[in-house]
Amino acid sequence: MHVDITAETRLLLIGMPGGELRLAATMAREAGAEVIMADQPDAALNILRGASVGLVMIDVMADVAGFVAQLRRERFVVPVIACGIDAPAERAVAAIRGGARDYVPLPSDRMMIAAALAIAATPPATRVVGNHPAFLKAIDYAGAIAPGSLPVSIVGETGTGRALLARAIHVASGRSGPFLAVECNGTASVMVEAELFGHRPGDLAGVPTGRLGKLDEARGGTLFVRDIDRLAPETQGRLMLALMDDRAGFRLIVSSACDLATLVPTGDFRADLAARQSTARIDLPPLRDRAGDIALLAPHLAERTARIEGGAVRPVDAAAVALLGDYPWPGNVRELEDVMRRAVILARGPAIGREDLVLVDGTRMLAIARPQEAGVDGLVGRTVEDVERALILRTLERCRGNRTSASGILGISVRTMRNKLRIFVEAGIPVAPAA
Ligand SMILES: Nc1ncnc2c1ncn2[C@@H]1O[C@H](COP(=O)(O)OP(=O)(O)OP(=O)(O)O)[C@@H](O)[C@H]1O
Q: What keywords would UniProt list here (predicted)?
């Protein structure tokens, strides 16, 4: 089972009292997992109003759709997974249609259920792997500023390990409070506001109850705001006001795709918030710029998934590492992690080999590998313009339409890239849609 539970790990389980699920949850809790239990969706909502939860698991026989609808009404952003023991397939389908992110069939053995719940409620590993000089510089700096409460911004492309580093800073800081995360990218601003600031009873139409915001809940701990460059201007203002209050009592770490200062002149980001948050800025390099780290990361990620999700722990052979090093990784370490998760399942031999490496759409990495011998000779006879166009389109395709990653690989600005693509489109040449 893989669930991206961002930074929080507290698991809320909704299951009938006396049922197998509840008994297993008690066992998982006794073994040290952070599991909160509720008998009914209503009781679960009450818990959510007062405490942050990273993941909700709900018995598929409960009213999943009704529960998810109420979560939306109250603007909660939390993944909901339906689960059941020998449940009929229609219930699972209905749960997904009702808004559950996934359905997880649980084993019938109570010990096994307890183990599955314990995994879901285990904090993600904070081991940070890599030894490229630019990466080490970032890690050393993070270690140096971890103690205390200096505001930190972590700048890097998606999947470069920004959340992992934020958590590592929190752990190294020794702060006793919780580590809580708020996601800005792809989350409606009303939802982000509710997550950050909570609301009082009656503030939301049709919702008589109030709810605690993460700003209050993070007291004594760390609040991690992911992709803060996507935060709406009004919310930036509210956040800045809250931060000016001396009693805030939490450390704010943010991640963004670019240096916040560069967004100030265009009016996309508040100057005061950018300045405050840039007290310490850590730049995480994209994976393609530290391809040497793949030799360390690939086996680490394969072993981690094998241990968490089950599967044999196999080494990664040298040819596979070479093939991985040849790919541009638009999704960075997260994408590599996903490739290794599939490889753990696919591998049959003594080691993970090239044939076990598959992209998200099922394309084998071997099939798209750059022919090593083609070289410049193969280009003789073609015009520079023609070769440039082919290179741009192919790189864009490999980056699945992501303009920023493709232009980074090509060493041109996003603006130049967009201009070129516009010219291609005008000439009737098909261009991969923006990711
Ligand atoms: N240097 C690293 N060592 C070990 N694991 C890593 C490293 N960098 C990233 N990971 C793993 O890769 C995955 C993605 O990392 P993370 O969530 O921190 O990325 P991110 O930059 O916050 O991106 P996004 O916002 O898209 O999630 C996580 O599972 C994380 O544990």
A: ATP-binding, DNA-binding, Nucleotide-binding, Phosphoprotein, Transcription, Transcription regulation, Two-component regulatory system
Side-chain half-sphere of 150: how many Cα atoms within 13 Å? 17
Ligand 1 atom 31: residue of nearest CA: 164
- If you measure from the C-alpha of residue 181 to the centroid of ligand 1, how many angstroms do you get, rounded to a whole number? 14
Domains parsed from the chain with CATH numbers = 11-120 (3.40.50.2300), 133-285 (3.40.50.300), 288-368 (1.10.8.60), 378-426 (1.10.10.60)
Residues 6+ apart with CB under 8 A from 310: none
Q: Is 128 in the pocket of ligand 1 (CB under 6 A)?
A: yes
158 C-beta closer than 6 A to ligand 1: yes
Residue 67: CB partners within 8 Å, gap ≥ 6? 14, 41, 44, 45, 58, 80
Q: What is the ipTM of this complex?
A: 0.98
* Angle, helices 332-346/294-309, rounded to nearest 10 degrees: 60
Tokens standing for residue 320: 């596979």
- Extract the tokens encoding 96: 């997904």
Taking alpha carbons only, the member of 173, 162, 144 closest to residue 250 is 173
Distances (CA, A) of 173 to 5, 9, 49, 309: 22, 19, 28, 30
Q: For residue 5, what pLDDT band results from cuts at 50, 70 and 90?
A: very low
Encode pLDDT of 85-127 as tens digits: 888 999 999 999 999 988 888 877 888 888 777 777 766 666 8
CA distances from 193 to 72, 186, 189, 215, 268 (A): 13, 13, 6, 10, 18
pTM above 0.80, yes or no: no
State the distance from the centre of ligand 1 to the C-alpha of 87, rounded, in angstroms.
34
Q: pLDDT tens-digit profile of 395-411?
A: 888 888 888 888 888 88
